[in-house]
Amino acid sequence: MGSRASTLLRDEEIEEIKKETGFSHSQITRLYSRFTSLDKGENGTLSREDFQRIPELAINPLGDRIINAFFIEGVHVLRMMVGVNISDEQLGSIADRTIQEADQDGDSAISFSEFVKVLEKVDVEQKMSIRFLH
Fold it and tell me: Which helix (H) or strand (E) holds 42?
């Protein structure tokens, strides 16, 4: 199992993760191995069903709540961000259009690389700053 993880992660990737997290080589390969064993769809993501197969969560009375915390529906998050200023229909339309524009491979999801490409077009520093008038 450990050898499978180490063959899937390149040394450069492990070194980058070590720098970002402070984890050791063995911790990273162990975590990656655990991740790949949970990823039954073998698509590089963990689904709700993948989490539900974790025995410790399956027997935990709060397991569903813990899992649901990882899968907050996007519209609910957007609603928290924008408040009640726009209707659910308008919010859904904005979310759909945003995903369509960013989703370059047509899989109805935004991958990290697609997300990065969208952010390259946005001046985040300008958008996230507060201008004070004198």
Answer: none
pTM: 0.48
Inside any domain, residue 94: yes
Same structural domain, 53 and 84: no
CB-side neighbour CA atoms (13 Å) of 51? 16
On whether both 91 and 41 belong to a single domain, the answer is no
> How would DSSP label each residue in 70-111?
H---HHHHHHHHHTTSS-HHHHHHHHHHHHHHH-SSSSSS--
Which has the closest alpha carbon to 35: 27, 26, 44?
44
More confident residue, 76 or 26: 26
CA distances (Å), origin 16, targets 11, 12, 19, 53? 9, 6, 5, 30
- Provide the residue range defining the domain that includes 79: 74-123
For residues 7 and 71, which has the higher predicted lDDT (pLDDT)? 71
Q: Is residue 99 part of a domain?
A: yes
Torsion of CA 111, 114, 115, 119, to 10 degrees: 170
- pLDDT tens-digit profile of 73-88? 655 666 666 666 777 7
